[in-house]
Amino acid sequence: MNLAEYSDRFDIEAALARFSGDSELLSEAIAIYKEEAVKHLKAIGEALQVGDMEKVCILAHTLKGESGAVGAIAAQQRSSSLETAIKNIDKDRVNELYRKVSEEVSIALQVLPDVIE
After folding, report:
1. What is the C-alpha to C-alpha distance for residues 21 and 15, in angstroms, rounded to an integer?
2. How many CB atoms lie within 10 A of CB 48?
3. Hey, how many other C-beta atoms are within 10 angstroms of the C-beta on 32?
């Protein structure tokens, strides 16, 4: 997987701008994202299993922010949709959106490490 294949899912220029053009800092943020996003996805799955929608909403919001910070805009948008579905009590869409968030984060975790090398 490379950025060219998934260019519509990322905005690396905006991410670099958030870090004042410092590619080393962005690279460090991506490394942190790799760890945190995995933890947050797992926690969302666990919260869904026990029906803790408040926790799912908080974690989706967190994942939305951290995805946006590193330029993973598709993961950010999917996380936002999940957060909105929970707030609107649209339980029918929550599991579907969780799968889509997981898919986008998985792509981000594979593509982003190669972006700043």
Report:
1. 8
2. 18
3. 12
Q: Give the percent of the chain with pLDDT over 70.
A: 97
Domains observed in the chain:
8-114 (1.20.120.160)
Q: Which residues contact 21 (CB under 8 A, 6 or more apart)?
A: none
Around Cβ 4, how many Cβ atoms within 10 Å?
Answer: 7
SS3 84: helix
**pTM > 0.90:** no
Helices (H), the chain: 12-18, 23-50, 53-69, 73-87, 91-111
User: How many C-beta atoms lie closer than 10 Å to residue 114's C-beta?
Assistant: 11
